[in-house]
Amino acid sequence: MRADTELLRDLIATTPGIATWPGRGRPEALIRAAESVTGPLPRSYRWWLAAYGEGSLRGRPIATVEPVPGLGEPGLLEGWSGGDRLWFHEDDDHECHGFALDRAADGEWPVVVLSRVTGEEQPVADSFAGFLTVWTAQAAGLREGPNPAVARLWRATPGLRLPDGGTLLGPHTFRARNDVWQVPTRAPHWALVGEDGTGAGLFMRRHGRDRSSLYRRTPGSLQGDVADAAEQLGADLFDWLDGLPRPASG
Q: What is the pTM of this model?
């Protein structure tokens, strides 16, 4: 699934702990020069380099491309030394995040985390965009998502704009929209995961065996089991998405 870069811009702009600086996007020539060394860069990371160039997570830098002084050649990423991992960020706990270059899928490379203490490697996200989304979710106290289906979505993109003008929520808007609908108090076993173009809510269960079905409920007070007064759109969020025309990613 491709990242929605419009929602990704919103996430980057509104998430405490993600820092960027205006006017530091990298020129296409420099990015291409870096790719002549590493091979094609992941799509959403390439977008980040062109749009922002530099950034940090809680003050820890995200690696970028720079000309080597006096040579004009790209000095790509402190973690790049060849092989099938390209490390781009190290957090305060000395865990390194990098792209698994041996697992490319649709122009993206999944992100893995390596503990320098234990030497163990674990998957984090399906893309760089997903990495920023999962990082935001965890920083907001949402873990990886309110249920497994939304967690899977967030591993790829910070929500999606829907063809009817609605949106599937990312972690940067999730809590605020759920509070507006009073979901935590009126339907605590459910999550508002999006809103359609008419203002109706899109809901999924947080708990229980069925946490993949998607329901639509018109505005109004919530009470009890959301499914009792809702339209079931599909038994699986991703099957439902596959059946929709997809808007441009921006």
A: 0.92
